[in-house]
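Wed. Picked up where I left off yesterday with FAD/NAD(P)-binding domain-containing protein. The coffee machine is broken again, so keeping this brief.
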Amino acid sequence: MAYNPKPSTGRRVIIIGAGIHGLAAAKTYLEMVPDIQLTVIDDDDSVGGVWSRSRVHSNLMADSATPTFDFSDLQMSEEFDIPEWSSIPGPIVHEYLERCVFNTQVTSVEKEGRGWKVYTKRSGEAVIAKGQTLTCDVLMVATGHFTVPKLPNIDISAFEGKTFHTKDVNERSEELLSRTLKPLLFNSRNWWDRFVVSGGNAWGKKLFEWFWQSTTNNRIGDRYEKSENGRLLKPKILNLFWSQAGISLVHNRDASVFDALDQGEKIHVARASIVSMKEKILHLSNQSQVNADAVIFATGWEPITGQIFSPELQAELGLPVLWDSLPEAEEKYWKELDASEDRKILDLYPLFDNLPYKYTQQEVEYTPFRLFRSLVPPSLTADRNIVFLGKLGNVQQTSLAEINALWSVAYLEGLLPLERLVSDQDAMNREVARVSAFMKRRYPGRRNIPLALLEVRDWMDMLLRDLGVRTDRNRLAWERSANRVFGWWGLKGWMAEWFKPYEPVVYKGIIGEFLERLGQQDDDKKTR
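Structure written out below (tokens, as returned):
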């Protein structure tokens, strides 16, 4: 028997953000609770978030192969006839995501009883008072981290050329393609756990180091050693495990980029910082100069925390705030809890206390994100009326977006009993502090953004276990296949689970599986 939730008729739901996480949330909510009143708000002129029409140039290629960008029930290779594991043109990513268009900016959000009041304005218009007001019972914030461009602290007033961020490359592409323009790009960029990953066992540590060094050498090869440009561009990392970003700054399969890099006629690399920009000359920290008609800043994004909320509400929602803005008792509580959980992480993973590289420890002015499962403010679990989506940096966005959406809707609709996951508020706070401590030690030097790169599969499994949904997705796919009869007593299913790559399609049907489990629980209650 499938479960059929019956929330209050006409429940109003607002989703802020029409990127991958926002669209996954909208689709999931409507599939589970069709009679909600849903509004999706985005300040761009099209959906897609970082893949919106305004950001995607026609020649842009996604640095991922087709299956990795798929939603579980919408394969890009089938939808757009792209060969599996081939590169994805940027416009295809946008078209794949496009299902609706809107152009509205959220200026502020306030609590109103058990719901929320959302103040908006049309993008490009000046804010007059607080603009148009919307109200909702449920708020899903899916604004992500890549909204406000981060620009270096350099005085560009004396520079006579053009300057802009990579976010604006598409809108200003005609300027870039001018034959008279010389542009410059400026970049800144279990038992196994216990025995191998922790670093607490000598043989496990050797196996761990050998595996990751071999994997890294195989991945990089000698492709950066063929020219001085390549050597300057080669990432300075020990191995993939300690990398806090992609292993390559250049698309792996685009040999023409490396050819141009090695030839050194059209591409010149300087590994230095910009000291000053005057006329059309850049003065670098290595005492050299570079002439440029345009400078494109590929310098990342400002960390977005909760600018649409008041500082007081940010703290209540578990968003980063200045440490010295907290009441003394609350600051003391969290610092003691953070220190306690940090000690536990170091006990479990001794290698984090003896890093094989040095990093610059920056002064921590802001509190970390304090969201349970990187989704829910611990202080508002009684209300169940707000979640934050897309706050966990990872390398499997679409799959995590779908699982996040299912977990969030189940939570918001009261279908996920939190007391089964954590005993009380203090236990939830300890769990939040523990995860924060792990991420701080696992990815030191990162800014205040939760991150799970190699750990993202474990994270998704944790969310599925919360929901009571099976995590062995490849084995489950084999069990459902027509070839199960030739499975050698389950050996093929075991082989698929352990040796076949996980693709987004294996998560197809998780909503139905969750609702079916709820229906079975209802049936069990009726028969008691």
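Quick read: Confidence is low (pLDDT under 50) at residues 92-101, 189-199.
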